[in-house]
Write a sequence for this structure.
């Protein structure tokens, strides 16, 4: 009897396994092709890279003498003009005289009028990007009081394989990680000659001037940059996923799927977002087919229920009936 039960269980398991396998094959994604017309349009060729917001010219303001900071007149973010007084400070001698007068209880005003504080002057028009001291702080002649930037630009890091495609005057699109929904237009105005080697990868700095500097620009913000190297109009375009490659690396599109597939070789050009340029192989108005995934409803679990569900139901019904006869609750 035990052998018969074991045989039945094995047969049932094999049967269910086979049903599961063939059911799974039927449930695999069915290939659906969507027809798309070849169209004429415009496409941009870009060098995509990253960089940061940086000052065009960064000037550090240091005191002419050692002493103590008396008063700071501007804060970070303020626009200043050349010749504007940024702060006042006392030289070491003036500090000593004033402190001695205070300690002796003398009238300080006489000494303040006699020994005037030293003004700190802005050497250029620009924006204060750093305030490095506080009033009352003792400083030396090498202490940085302020840093001023005349203009904020974007400095892009471009791989050496792409730098040959970049020219001054090319348009650029800039977005900041901090403000991803705001796109800023700019243009390339300088390509530096000295590269940087990091882990055997050579990059060159490319400077981009925004058309207008947004108020939210801050030095060292991370920027994503697209430098437009080519803008082609009147070209043939198809969706990028319409183009496939064979085992030899040759590109083709499907121009017929039923009753059999027809593969048409193509030569591609620029790829931008969801479009790819077709240089040769197609004409405007022709139809290409884009593969999509379609899914059939799952039936494996239903089959499982058909195979084992009735047996389980009868067993549970019997237990439930037995329990109810005994007056107890059905088993959980």
């Amino acid at each position: 009897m035990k052998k018969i039960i074991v045989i039945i269980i094995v047969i049932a398991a094999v049967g269910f396994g086979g049903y599961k396998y063939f059911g799974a094959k039927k449930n695999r994604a069915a290939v659906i092709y969507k027809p798309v017309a070849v169209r004429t349009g415009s496409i941009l060729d870009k060098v995509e890279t990253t960089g940061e917001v940086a000052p065009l010219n960064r000037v550090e303001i240091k005191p002419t003498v050692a002493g103590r900071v008396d008063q700071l007149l501007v804060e970070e973010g303020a626009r200043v003009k050349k010749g504007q007084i940024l702060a006042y400070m006392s030289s070491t001698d003036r500090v000593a005289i004033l402190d001695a007068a205070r300690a002796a209880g003398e009238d300080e005003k006489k000494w303040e009028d006699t020994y005037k504080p030293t003004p700190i002057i802005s050497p250029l028009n620009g924006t204060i990007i750093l305030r490095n001291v506080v009033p009352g702080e003792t400083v030396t002649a090498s202490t940085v009081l302020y840093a001023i930037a005349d203009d904020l630009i974007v400095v892009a890091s471009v791989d050496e394989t792409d730098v040959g495609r970049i020219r001054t005057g090319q348009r650029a699109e800039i977005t900041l990680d901090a403000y991803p929904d705001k796109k800023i237009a700019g243009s390339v105005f300088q390509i530096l000659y000295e590269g940087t080697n990091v882990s055997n990868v050579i990059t060159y700095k490319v400077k981009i001037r925004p058309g207008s500097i947004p108020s939210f620009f801050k030095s060292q913000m991370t920027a994503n940059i697209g430098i437009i190297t080519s803008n082609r109009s009147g070209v043939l375009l198809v969706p990028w996923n319409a183009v496939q490659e064979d085992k030899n690396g040759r590109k083709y599109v499907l121009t017929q799927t039923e009753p059999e597939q027809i593969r048409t070789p193509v030569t591609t050009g620029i790829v931008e977002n969801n479009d790819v340029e077709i240089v040769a192989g197609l004409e405007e108005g022709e139809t290409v087919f884009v593969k999509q995934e379609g899914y059939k409803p799952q039936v494996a679990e239903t089959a499982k229920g058909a195979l084992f569900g009735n047996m389980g139901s009868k067993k549970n019904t019997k237990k439930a009936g037995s329990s109810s006869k005994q007056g107890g609750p059905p088993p959980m």
Observations:
- The mean pLDDT is 82.
